[in-house]
What we know:
This protein is of the alpha+beta class. The chain contains five helices and 15 strands. It has helices at 59-73, 91-99, 141-145, 176-196, 216-222, and strands at 3-6, 19-20, 27-28, 44-51, 77-85, 103-108, 119-126, 130-137, 149-157, 160-168, 204-208, 235-237, 268-273, 277-284, 299-305. Strand 10 (160-168), helix 4 (176-196) and strand 11 form a beta-alpha-beta unit.
Amino acid sequence: MTTTSNQSGNQPGNRPGSQTSKESGVQSSTQSGARAGSQDSRRDITVATWNVWRRGGPWEQRHKMIIDALEFAAADVITLQQTWVTNDRNQPAEIAAALGLEHVQVAPYAGPSGPDGQRIVLAVISRWPLRDAVSRALPSALARSQGRGMLGVVVDHPAGALPLVTTHLNSSPTGSGDRVSEVRAVAELTGELAGAADADLGPIVTGDLNAEPGSDEVRLLGGLLTAPAVPGLGLEDVWHYADPAGPGYTWRWENSFLAAGTRSARIDYILVGLSTGVLGARMIGLDPVDGVHPSTHAGVCAKLLLRPAR
């Protein structure tokens, strides 16, 4: 099931009433008010991705910190892993409303609801409309045991259709072989969205891949250091353009919620099609407040220049 909400706010720089389609399971909602359209003709956009660790730890405090960090990022499109909805709360919608962004699409992880109807979801939050949403489970038995999936959408950017897929791969330290099959499915969905939308921008793939840059699964998804998962689909890791350069660890030993002795690793990514220019990349959500970090992960943020691939 996927859920869409169209939201508007009057805060500069950022971004859920309701109608349900029985056939598609898609729910839409709208509020009035939007950011002025003068920026909509631009081809540079800022994209952020972040695993926000569901409602772990002091989650209300962290929720506010997550909003603050994303407001600082000033992203046009945000993808979230392990965000949450309940019977009366919706974290992606609350984030979108706080930032003044207008459109939200969510897809739940597999598994039963928790207390208060809580579901863990993937989410895309966008300044521009989202369409052609597809939610799929990842194919490996390990990913299915963890409820993992992927969410694909087409962003109706003024410069053209922009396919985007976000995912959360299995987290087993020895699950690389399973993640290889998972990234093949992610690449196939990315190619399908691009083809169906006749897109000449992007695509963009984001998420918590639970794998380091030199792993088989990340190399396969990129398709630049080995044969691509889908012929012709090459994806560039935006962290190559980070300034200042550094290891880009998003899973960090100093995080207040990770066990002592945790090894730092870069496991969260924004990957972009080869026609897309990367103007810069950085991490978000690094700093604790009163000893509390916003999430177990740091997020990644990149400024991109959209260029037609044809």
